[in-house]
Amino acid sequence: METSPEDIEGMDAAEGILTVRGGMTSHAAVVARGMGTCCVSGCGDITVNEEDKHFTLDGKKYNEGDYISIDGSTGNIYGEAIPTVAASISGDFETFMKWADDRRRLKVRTNADTPRDAKQAVAFGAEGIGLCRTEHMFFEGDRIKAIREMIVSDTAEERKAALNKILPYQQGDFEEIYRVLEGRPMVIRFLDPPLHEFVPQKEEDIEELAKEMKITAQNLKEIIEGLHEFNPMMGHRGCRLDVTYPEIAEMQTTAIINAAITVNKEHPEYKLSLI
For burial by CB atoms within 10 Å, which of 24, 57, 158, 174 has the most? Predict the structure, then answer.
């Protein structure tokens, strides 16, 4: 129906994003734009059947695995696979933006969270990264497993052991981003969202994770339930996480500084949320 921060792993894997609810400033549109992924958000004529894994549009039924094509510029949806080209700045828009560049004094940065995003941003003319959300680096393969291992840990030593598995990935990402930016500035935000966004919600996913973590499904459910908050936007997140679990900030600081030293002694800017 629509996307949320918990969907970032699927959004990263998707060739395109189509939602029933939303608009130009919705989560799907904003995140997809930063990723360079085609997106059509807010197609209210779609009827989704999640249980049977199909949707209907304009009287036609589309099943899981069927091909469709979307045009993020016009909002058109096509019920077949059609040839596509990568987005580029061209035509009248390119001319207008060049006129603006000749006169403007304002510097323009972008949101970018991965080396791929940073490369796309530079190609589109960004003069730096205004916000690098480090939590978006944690959703791939072994990284999300290590984050979940950290969340269910009982001691600081166990959390540090899990975070040490993430450190090489985190540092490697920052090194690649620094190289892509070629000296352009970047503001890095330390881990911000509440921890419940990293744990599974479906029964089968909980059982699978419990088996991987070598704990009971009931124990994991209790941990997950304990992470939920009445108002997560103002809850246990941002700098409050770093106060409770300083080893998280220690790992991220180590990754950022080591990467900066490795790549031409870059000078990143930092953001600790909710001070």
Answer: 174
